[in-house]
Amino acid sequence: MKTNKWLVRLGVLIVILGIAALMFVIGRGHTVYFDNKTATYEDTEYTAFQKVEIYVNGERVAKLSKKDRGMATWIGQHFKMELEVTRNKGDEPERISVAIELPYSMDGILVNLPELVAGLPQDVWLSEFVIAAPAAEDDDALPTEDDMGLSDF
User: Fold this and answer.
1) Alpha carbon of 72 to those of 33, 50, 81, 118: distances in Å?
2) d(CA 153, CA 132)
3) Beta-ladder partners of 61
4) Could you give the CA distance from residue 110 to residue 137 in angstroms, rounded to a whole number?
5) Which residue, 30, 54, 82, 130, has fewest beta-carbon neighbours within 10 Å?
6) DSSP 21-79
7) Structural domain boundaries of the chain?
8) Domain 29-128 has CATH 3.30.890
9) CB 91 within 8 A of CB 50
10) Residue 149, pLDDT score
11) pTM exceeds 0.70, yes or no
12) How many other C-beta atoms can be found within 10 angstroms of the C-beta atom of residue 112?
């Protein structure tokens, strides 16, 4: 009787851990940022597109000109998007389907579109998006202990 009780508890624990692992894999949310910026890799320049429209699940999430950045949110590791790329002014847009694997370890993912479309390795066009720290304020603008900011009155 006691053995059955422990087996049931062990079985429930295994099921809960299995569900947790499954939710970690399929339920992980990411913010994917897209850069349409000129980049250089191994002495080759990959020019930004004149215009690129990004579609995720059939919905346009970004329309980028040169030097623009867009974003989309995605749940899961298998990210699929459609790009409508106009390489140069006056060119006809071409449609490109892209499927990429998103790393588990990154929340904010930055994708350089010209390098991605050129077929470069993933470590070249994919990086972690890190928000830059704000610039330090001038110390003169801070109130001193003497006037507590009341010197303007």
Assistant:
1) 7, 20, 10, 21
2) 36
3) none
4) 28
5) 130
6) HHHHHHS-EEEEEEEE--EEETTEEEPPPSEEEEEETTEEEEEEETTEEEEEEEESSEE
7) 29-128
8) no
9) yes
10) 56
11) no
12) 23
Closest residue by Cα to residue 74 from 90, 55, 88: 55
- Output helix, strand, coil percentages for the chain, rounded to the nearest 5: 25, 40, 35
Kindly calculate the radius of gyration of the chain based on its CA atoms and give it in whole angstroms.
Answer: 24
Q: Given the DSSP bridges, would you call strands 126-128 and 108-112 parallel, antiparallel or unpaired?
A: antiparallel
Contact 114, 39 (CB under 8 A): yes
Q: Residue 15: what pLDDT? A: 94
Check: CB of residue 71 under 8 Å from CB of residue 31. yes
Burial of 48 (0-12, 13-18, 19+ CB in 10 A): buried
CA dist 117 and 46 (Å) reads: 10
Under-50 pLDDT residues of the chain: none
Q: What does the alpha-carbon distance between residue 44 and residue 120 come to, in Å, rounded to a whole number?
A: 11
**CB neighbours (10 Å) of residue 115?**
22
Task: Give phi and psi for 27, each to the nearest 5.
Answer: -105, 10
